[in-house]
């Protein structure tokens, strides 16, 4: 939400990941390329300024990039770099997908120390066992944490949130800092106030949930692509996914989209903006978007 409101002037969606890549991982990736001719995965790119920022799509790109370099970077260095990102982003890093992280890095250590090809030898005791591999789902937590790793201008963010009470101090944001920023701010010229002028939503007083109000003109009786295009400038992708899936039905010509799975695949493909290798990837995207939408109140106007 905050990143959407402050985009693009006060947001660096890939800043922390790029700095970590340069400082912790890039030398190993380049070394493998020179020594063994391995491909150098392309670092994800920031979306066009006019297209808005879709955090889940960018999170998928970062996840895929991390998966590719995980076989090129020593496990200790890979883990160190991720820990740097977590330390910068979370108050309590121990609670951030601990089981998933443990499984992934334990699996990578096995891959780096075991001679996997020895399993093909008839003399190997592993010959009749399945070939060891790491499921692609082991990397999904990277996409889940990505939104919390986005860097925003701290002072601009404080000014944008100035009407919300500071319930408690967090890492890097003390009460004294907030008061100092608000005293010295010139909100008339700030990016924050430009965003406030067109609020994306409001917070419900009784439960603190964000409430998104969707006028019927955005979605009622319109084709899916038109709904997406009308909403993308004002609403997060998760809200658009919710509206398309639950409020908009398949068009008469879209007979293949009438099953629940087919409909989720269709909407996921519409929102992804790029091609994935299989239909399940689009449904996984929808699962993540709808999980985020569960935290909101989305109402028809």
Mind explaining what this structure looks like?
There is one protein chain. Mean pLDDT is 82; it is low at 187-199. The protein is mainly alpha-helical. A three-stranded mixed beta sheet has the order 3-4-5. It has a two-stranded antiparallel sheet with strand order 1-2. The protein has two domains: 2-152, no CATH class; 200-301, no CATH class. It contains 14 helices and five strands. Helix 12 runs antiparallel to helix 13. It has helices spanning 2-6, 15-36, 55-69, 75-89, 98-113, 140-146, 154-160, 175-184, 191-197, 216-219, 224-231, 237-246, 260-272, 279-293, and strands at 11-12, 151-152, 202-203, 210-214, 296-300. The relative contact order is 0.11. It is globular and about 65 Å long.
Count the beta strands: 5
Helix and strand run: HEHHHHHEHHHEEHHHHHE
Overall structural class, as computed from helix and strand content, comes to: mainly alpha
Form type:
globular
What is the average per-residue confidence, as pLDDT, rounded to a whole number? Answer: 82
Main beta-sheet strand count, sense and barrel state: 3 strands, mixed
Describe, in short, the structure shown.
This protein is 51% helix and 5% strand.
Keywords:
globular; 301 residues; 5 strands; mainly alpha; 14 helices
Spell out the blueprint of helices and strands:
Blueprint: H1 2-6, E1 11-12, H2 15-36, H3 55-69, H4 75-89, H5 98-113, H6 140-146, E2 151-152, H7 154-160, H8 175-184, H9 191-197, E3 202-203, E4 210-214, H10 216-219, H11 224-231, H12 237-246, H13 260-272, H14 279-293, E5 296-300
Parallel strand pairs: 4-5
Antiparallel strand pairs: 1-2, 3-4
Helix pairs in contact: 2-4, 3-6, 7-9, 12-13, 12-14, 13-14
């Amino acid at each position: 939400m905050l990143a959407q409101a402050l985009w693009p002037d006060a947001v660096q969606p890939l800043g922390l990941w790029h700095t970590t890549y340069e400082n912790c991982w890039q030398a190993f990736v380049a070394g493998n390329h020179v020594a063994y001719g391995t491909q150098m995965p392309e670092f994800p790119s920031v979306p066009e300024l006019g297209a808005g920022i879709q955090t889940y799509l960018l999170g998928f790109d970062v996840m895929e990039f991390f998966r590719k370099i995980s076989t090129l970077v020593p496990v200790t260095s890979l883990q160190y770099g991720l820990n740097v990102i977590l330390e910068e982003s979370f108050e309590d890093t121990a609670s951030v997908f601990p089981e998933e992280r443990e499984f992934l890095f334990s699996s990578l250590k096995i891959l780096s120390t075991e001679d996997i090809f020895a399993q093909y030898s008839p003399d190997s005791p592993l010959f009749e066992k399945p070939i060891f591999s790491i499921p692609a789902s082991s990397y999904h937590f990277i996409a889940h944490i990505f939104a919390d790793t986005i860097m925003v201008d701290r002072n601009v963010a404080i000014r944008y949130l100035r009407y919300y009470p500071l319930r408690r101090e967090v890492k890097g944001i003390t009460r004294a800092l907030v008061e100092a920023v608000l005293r010295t701010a010139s909100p008339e010229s700030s990016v924050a106030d430009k965003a406030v002028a067109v609020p994306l939503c409001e917070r419900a007083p009784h439960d603190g949930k964000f409430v998104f109000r969707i006028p019927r003109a955005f979605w009622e009786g319109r084709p899916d692509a038109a709904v997406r295009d009308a909403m993308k400038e004002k609403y997060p992708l998760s809200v658009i996914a919710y509206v398309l899936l639950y409020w908009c039905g398949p068009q008469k010509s879209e007979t293949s989209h009438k099953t629940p799975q087919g409909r989720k695949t269709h909407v996921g493909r519409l929102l992804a903006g790029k091609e994935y290798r299989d239909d399940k990837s689009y449904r996984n995207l929808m699962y993540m978007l709808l999980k985020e939408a569960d935290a909101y109140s989305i109402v028809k106007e």
